[in-house]
């Protein structure tokens, strides 16, 4: 049962931050409420005050930085809004593709991207995708704003580098260059993914060499993790050579992640699945050089 609480409706991120500072641990920020109200109903967390971020104008905007081409996603943008956004469809179709498989209609219509990232539930899709894209997050407090690489934002399961009084206001995703293709593959049987692998493959202009590779996995470790060993085994090598030794390249994931057993599977099973999905994601990204962009 939900206990009574007081709702506060700030007009700016700075005001929200000041409110959180004044009310302390009795207060939490509130966006779509799809996670927060659930844990409050179950009595796992109790707050006497909820600070509603939806009353802050402009936090749900989706646009492009005209100078850099960076996609700027307001933290209050819902999954449904991102999925349907013409800007996302044009600038980063992979994100729209990922959002299509997130949760269900009810959660998509109210759940926000910022809420997803701040809750830091390990079985989530946007985290690994943004990690492979080297996105940054903007955090705003009463004293000002700071930008953080997403890799530094995720600290542990349900834990981020956000200070309690900081509001996540924006997620900034750099544009893929003309020789980069991305893929996100998720696997699972519950609503949330058991595993998600995001991969961004950059080839040289002749499309014969792997100029860069970024791979991230979610769901198998407490926080989304870059697979640096896999990346290092592929970077700088011929594409055909990597494709021919993909089993070995993907096998390097064993040194990158130590999966933890949970309700979604044993550590051993997850380790095997990571390898399978890294291989599939690489093949998928390579195939996109002959077809649609990502
Ligand atoms: C049935 C179900 C299925 C789901 N399936 C998937 C799935 O397939 N893939 C997936 O990735 N996710 C999935 N999710 C998670 C879903 O994406 C999140 O529930 C949603 O995005 C959270 O956003 P919210 O706005 O509702 O957050 P809220 O519940 O409002 O907030 C969540 C937490 O973040 C904090 N917070 C929220 N916004 C901010 C902000 N801007 N700044 C600072 N702190 C903030 C709150 O204080 C709270 O602690 C699922 C959830 C449910 C309930």
TrEMBL record:
SMART domains: CO_deh_flav_C. The keyword Flavoprotein applies. PANTHER family: XANTHINE DEHYDROGENASE SUBUNIT C-RELATED. Pfam families: CO_deh_flav_C, FAD_binding_5. The keyword Secreted does not apply. It comes from Candidatus Segetimicrobium genomatis. Keywords: FAD, Flavoprotein, Oxidoreductase. This is Xanthine dehydrogenase family protein subunit M. One of its GO terms (molecular function) is FAD binding.
């Amino acid at each position: 049962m939900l206990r009574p609480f007081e709702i506060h409706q700030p007009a700016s991120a700075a005001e929200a931050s000041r409110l959180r500072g004044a009310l302390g641990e009795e207060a939490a920020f509130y966006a779509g409420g799809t996670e927060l109200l659930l844990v409050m109903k179950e009595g796992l967390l109790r707050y006497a005050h909820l600070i509603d971020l939806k009353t802050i104008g402009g936090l749900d905007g989706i646009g492009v930085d005209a100078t850099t081409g960076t996609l700027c996603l307001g933290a209050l943008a819902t999954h449904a809004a991102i999925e349907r956004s013409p800007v996302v469809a044009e600038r980063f179709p992979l994100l729209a593709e990922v959002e299509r498989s997130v949760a269900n209609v009810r959660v998509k219509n109210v759940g926000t991207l910022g809420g997803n990232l701040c809750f830091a539930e390990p079985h989530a899709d946007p985290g690994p995708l943004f990690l492979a894209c080297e996105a940054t997050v903007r955090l705003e407090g009463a004293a000002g704003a700071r930008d953080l690489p997403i890799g530094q934002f995720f600290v542990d399961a349900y834990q981020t580098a956000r200070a309690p009084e900081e509001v996540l206001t924006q997620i900034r995703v750099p544009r893929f260059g003309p020789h980069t293709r991305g893929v996100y593959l998720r696997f699972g049987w519950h609503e949330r993914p058991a595993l998600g692998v995001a991969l961004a493959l950059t080839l040289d202009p002749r499309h014969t060499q792997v100029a860069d590779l970024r791979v991230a996995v979610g769901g198998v470790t407490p926080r989304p993790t870059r697979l640096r060993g896999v990346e290092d085994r592929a970077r700088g090598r011929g594409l055909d050579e990597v494709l021919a030794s993909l089993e070995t390249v993907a096998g390097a994931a064993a040194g990158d992640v130590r999966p933890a057993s949970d309700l979604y599977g044993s550590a051993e099973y997850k380790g095997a699945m990571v390898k399978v999905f890294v291989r599939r994601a690489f093949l998928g990204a390579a195939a996109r050089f002959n077809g649609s962009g990502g």
